[in-house]
Amino acid sequence: MSEFLKLAYELISKIIYNIAMCFEALFRLLFTGWPEYAAIFGSYFWTLSVPAKILALILALILIAIPVLIVVLLARHFYLNLRLKADHDDNSTLYREIGRLNKQVLDLIDEKNKLLALKVNAMGGTERIPYMGASALTDDKLHTVGNVTGGVVPENGPEGEVAPAGADVNVEKDTPEDAALIKAIRFPKLTLVDQKYVDYVKPQYDNSITLQQFTEGFRLYAASQMKLYYSPEVVRRFVAGMAASKLLILEGISGTGKTSLPYSFSRYMGNPSTIVSVQPSYRDRTELLGYFNEFSKRFNETEFLRALYEATYRDDPSLIVLDEMNLARIEYYFAEMLSVLEMPSHDEWVIDLVPTGWPKDPAHVVDGKIMVSESVWFVGTANNDDSTFTITDKVYDRAIPIELNDRANTFECEPYPACNISFMHLQALFEQAKRDYPISDATMEKMNRLDLYLQTRFKLAFGNRIIKQMYDFIPVYVACGGTEIDGLDYIVARKVLKKFESLNVSFVRDEIKELIEYVDKTFGKTKMEDSRAYLTRIQNFY
Fold this sequence. Notes:
The protein has 542 residues and is of the alpha/beta class. Among the domains are: 211-403, P-loop containing nucleotide triphosphate hydrolases (Rossmann fold); 437-541. The chain has helices at 2-32, 34-45, 50-86, 88-122, 135-138, 145-149, 171-183, 188-196, 211-225, 232-244, 260-268, 286-289, 303-310, 330-333, 335-341, 393-398, 423-436, 441-458, 464-479, 484-496, 509-523, 529-541; strands spanning 247-251, 274-277, 291-293, 298-300, 318-323, 350-352, 365-366, 369-371, 376-382, 400-403. The strands form three sheets. Strands 2-5-9-1-10 form a five-stranded parallel β-sheet, sandwiched between helices. It has a three-stranded antiparallel β-sheet with strand order 6-8-7. It has a two-stranded antiparallel sheet with strand order 3-4. Strand 7 (365-366) and strand 8 (369-371) form a beta hairpin. Helix 9 (211-225) packs across helix 10, helix 10 packs across helix 19 (464-479) and helix 21 (509-523) runs antiparallel to helix 22.
């Protein structure tokens, strides 16, 4: 036994000695061996040639870098271990918080599915779609309309008869009956519009009224029936704007009647407008037109779509108001409508809602498409403050902007009735005004000279769209009781000079002063007051 202990002692002691020698050698390598290294380096270095000395220095730097790098890596390793150990409690708290947030996300998804089921049930139909919960996200089973609603229409059964809930459903047999179940409720709101106009009787339209009577009658109606007051100038611009564009933008400070103007005007024509409150979250066409819900197999309709569809049934003008339209970017959510209204032929004013048509779709939804009626005008209200987006030139060029910055004076008048006017008669009045009050050659010659001056000095021009709007706007403006030069003044100020806001006005301030003098010389100092006031304002502002 003593011999074994002696063996174990000598063996273990030798191993410990060798380990100690390793650590001693490592310590000598990294720390205490440097004097010996330096002595060897110095004994050879001074006897070497210049190239050899350079190589010796490089070798010395490499040999120094290796232990230094080892020490740095070891120190970093120990430091990170200490940090991880110190942060262990904080990490545990973080993991628990992540787990809690994940659970909240799952709860919100569950809540969203419940709300979706309630929304689908509220859209109509006799069969209620039950809440499917997490299975809607995790199940591999293909949910058809039949097994979601609790039953399917038997293959040879009468229409509307439903098989018991939980019955085995064959997808191939289920598809035609599912379609039959869906077709009647794909567009619930538009279907109600169809039912509303089944027995619709058109009113007796006044086809003898003139444009001047029409505009003055509105002022009297708004004042007597609604206690709203507008100046003759604003009403003329509104009616002439309808002749020049399908999109009107009412701008101005709050409280000047931007929303009440189209509201009262539509009441005057006997066809109340639809007011759509634009939200800052609007990003694309679905915010206005809605979208097809693949889960419920129904189209999520909006009031904008309903108003657009209802206009296809009516013969009188329809106004759709986009209230606070620049709370979101107009060129995003209204882009498709802007493009459609630019099409030269009304047959091309078509919007795709769904890829294909079904037999029981609403009567005026053909092959999944809806026609934009010629009798529709879109009126947007806009405030210019920090909460809104700037209206881009793309939108301004297509619209007629009307500024409402002053409140009109009140006046007393006898009660005045509404005016039932058809769209065809209103359009005929616009065409008659173009024949009766064409822009004079003298005014056109002055306008061409102003156009040439703006192109030469400021690189601004009367574009083709503005010229067309001018030919439509000015005659109607004159027919409503205005003058030709005032109509031209308004178009130039709001459609052409408006583009100065996109220039660096500080660099062309002197040129703007000369432009004001040129306008006075060309049109007279008592004319073009709106353009002169606008140029003076932007010159002083910038």
